[in-house]
Write a structure and sequence with these properties.
The chain has two domains: 206 residues, 3-Layer(aba) Sandwich (Rossmann fold), CATH 3.40.50; 172 residues, Glycogen Phosphorylase B (Rossmann fold, 3-Layer(aba) Sandwich), CATH 3.40.50.2000. The protein has 15 helices and 13 strands. The longest helix has 18 residues.
Length: 383
């Protein structure tokens, strides 16, 4: 039996949380004994608890959103802006209690592997916590937002992480460019088709519902979408834009919608608990991201028989082949996005996209393929 501590340092319960939860649902409990450490209470605390996995909820002065202190955050940010600062020393001071708790968890539970589930820039502190302890470390890169990751940090990571994983080739290339010298394995996120209701439908309604399921952050591209949507309905009012999610940019986007007098065409649904229900009301999913290492919502939409239009950035082109199982558009190109939405109203084209999407899921993003890849990682780590 292998004791593994999964550390999720995210805040909002986004894609990294969901990917970890899906993996833990199907992990081989006869061989792996999982533990979880997290820093914010989200819906995943209950979901993980339902899987009968021990959860350690740690309060951290940076990663726990209810403890954020402006002064501490400013000091913490300096290590990403000033390269000569002793980042390990500063991290030890700011995260002293977190480091102590992580070490206690490792020792008390005889942890053999630490699985860092977010990205190495956020997870440096856990490498410090594991120093001098006999544990192996896996670092799973789930984003390409590593601004401030410098040469000293890269050297420290290369010396202390045993295996790096990325959720796409684009993510792999990003972290290699930023100094990760060890081989980075690529493991695409998987989707369990049984979790979604496949609807092979046509666009028969007069009004087309365009859905976006994403946290409101700059990286998700909501402003680009709103500006494009304004152009779309200039000549045809038979569209509704339904935005699900919360986040720091939400008020800004609501203001833009009001400023453009689009309130009658744009709905804000807030946090969505039931994705299946939300997707059942959508005709087209749009992923207008400015930065995206993968794009899990694309798989979820494909499993639901919803055609996807997405920007051609990051790992998205590794999921979508343009005009085959979706449409790719250039980020910031309003005319391309408008044309793609109009084209997706063609029922024959849409049906072809839906059929090809289902094939993509089965061939490239299956559960069994992912689980087999992860078992090989553990075998390599412990041989």
């Amino acid at each position: 039996m292998i004791n593994i501590l999964f550390i999720e340092s995210g805040i909002s319960g986004g894609g990294s949380f969901e990917s970890l939860y899906q993996y833990l649902r199907f992990i081989n409990r006869s061989k792996i004994n999982p533990y979880i450490a997290c820093f914010n209470k989200t819906k995943y605390n209950k979901l993980w608890n339902d899987l009968d996995i021990p959860i350690y909820s740690i309060k951290d002065r940076i990663y726990s959103k209810d403890l954020n202190n402006y002064f501490i955050l400013k000091i913490h940010s300096l290590i990403y802006r000033i390269k000569w600062l002793p980042f390990k020393f500063i991290l030890r001071i700011i995260h002293y209690s977190t480091i102590r708790m992580i070490r206690e968890i490792i020792i008390d539970n005889k942890i053999e592997i630490i699985y860092l589930n977010n990205q190495i820039l956020r997870d440096l502190v856990y490498l410090i916590a594991a120093e001098s302890l006999d544990v192996k470390i896996i670092s799973h890169q789930r984003s390409t937002r590593g601004s401030g990751f410098n040469e000293k940090m890269a050297i420290f990571a290369n010396n202390n992480v045993d295996i790096f994983i990325a959720n796409s080739n684009a993510c792999q290339k990003y972290w290699i460019k930023n100094g990760i010298e060890k081989d980075i394995k690529v493991a695409y996120n998987f989707i369990d088709e049984k979790d979604f209701i496949y609807q092979d439908s046509k666009l028969e309604s007069d009004v087309v519902n365009i859905g976006v399921l994403a946290n409101f952050t700059e990286a998700k591209g909501h402003e680009f979408l709103i500006n494009s949507f304004e152009k779309l309905i200039k000549d045809n009012k038979n569209y509704k834009l339904i935005l699900a999610g919360d986040g720091p940019e939400k008020e800004k986007i609501q203001f833009i919608v009001k400023e453009k007098s689009l309130q009658n065409f744009v709905q804000f649904k807030g946090y969505i608990e039931n994705k299946v229900d939300f997707l059942s009301k959508i005709d087209i999913t749009v992923v207008p991201s400015k930065n995206e290492s993968f794009g899990r919502v694309i798989l979820e939409s494909m499993c639901s028989g919803i055609p996807v239009i997405a920007t051609d950035i990051g790992g998205i082109p590794e999921i979508i082949s343009n005009n085959i199982n979706g449409i790719l558009v250039e980020y910031g190109n309003h005319e391309e996005l408008v044309s793609a939405i109009i084209r997706m109203r063609d029922n024959n084209f849409k049906r072809e996209i839906i059929v090809n999407s289902k094939k993509s899921i089965e061939e490239k993003f299956s559960k069994d393929k992912y689980l087999n890849n992860m078992n090989l990682v553990y075998d390599e780590l412990l041989k």
